[in-house]
Amino acid sequence: MKIRIFNSPHDAGIYVAALAEQIIESRRKPVLGLATGSTPIPFYEALVHLHQCGLDLSRVTTINLDEYIGLDSSHPQSYSWFMWKHLFSHVNIPKENIYLPNGVATDLEAECRRYDEIIHSHPIHLQILGIGVNGHIGFNEPDDTLLSGTHIVELRPETVMSNARFFNDIGEVPKRAITMGVQAILQADKIVLMAFGREKAKIIAKSVYGEVRTDVPASILNLHKDVTVVLDRDSAGELLDESGRLRTK
Ligand code: GLP
């Protein structure tokens, strides 16, 4: 794993946007796997800025990691709404190239299979990931097993609690979601895991320097050959020695 530590999420976002530009410019039909949460916002801001500076996104396809079950795209806390607010409404990615799971599909199992087919026919060149406080990636929660395909997940209490900050009341936070599985994530050509803030320092150390374990889902990224972990000084806190240098694993 490559580790890059920045002075601020803003600087980190610019770096990740530059990585995305390399992929976009080098592919005829670039496919980006995208994430939600507060962490990738500086990346989206920088990508929008690059677009305003001339980067064309009209050949890009995007595939999002996950969506809450029960929230339709008009709900301000749905991940679809989030993506339109932070990225899609500011750039020229064609609407028909944008994919998110449908959290209000009448047949959710069929929706999972539909999403797997989309992923299968659009292999992901660059996968952006955040990380939950418990180590989840997408909504692949810590468990005895990790599932390979797109699936329905019961969110863990700590995830519901952590995501409650985006809702008026914890009771409004959906308890289930649809998430891309770990196989789709690991099949991406390149993965960028982003994390900022002190509350992510412990789980980043466990994921990056610990054993590969299903109860630390992000640790499976150690099995991939091209992962860049993008941190700020706070989230990197437990990877550094007293003199501020990266500890060896
Ligand atoms: C949600 C998303 C994850 C994201 C996580 C962290 O649970 N499903 O993909 O990584 O939130 O959120 P934040 O970046 O706000 O800490």
Task: Write out key terms for the chains shown.
249 residues; binds 2-amino-2-deoxy-6-O-phosphono-alpha-D-glucopyranose; 3-stranded antiparallel beta sheet; single chain; globular; 10 strands; 7 helices; 7-stranded parallel beta sheet; Rossmann fold; alpha/beta
Overall residue-averaged pLDDT value: 96
Largest sheet: 7 strands, parallel
Taken in chain order, the helices and strands follow as EHEHEEHEHEEHEHEHE
Instruction: Work out the number of β strands.
Output: 10
Bound molecules: 2-amino-2-deoxy-6-O-phosphono-alpha-D-glucopyranose
Poorly predicted runs: none
What best-fitting shape do the alpha-carbon axes yield?
globular
The CATH topology turns out to be Rossmann fold
The quaternary state of the protein chains shown equals single chain
- DSSP summary: helix tally: 7
> How many domain regions?
1
Q: What is the CATH C-level name?
A: Alpha Beta
Strand neighbour order, sheet with most strands:
1-10-9-6-2-3-5
Spatial separation of the terminal alpha carbons? 11 Å
Corresponding CATH architecture: 3-Layer(aba) Sandwich
- Cα-based radius of gyration, to the nearest Å: 17 Å
- What is the helix fraction of residues, given as a range? 25-40%
Structural class: alpha/beta
Per DSSP, what share of the residues sits in E-state strands of 2 or more residues? 15-25%
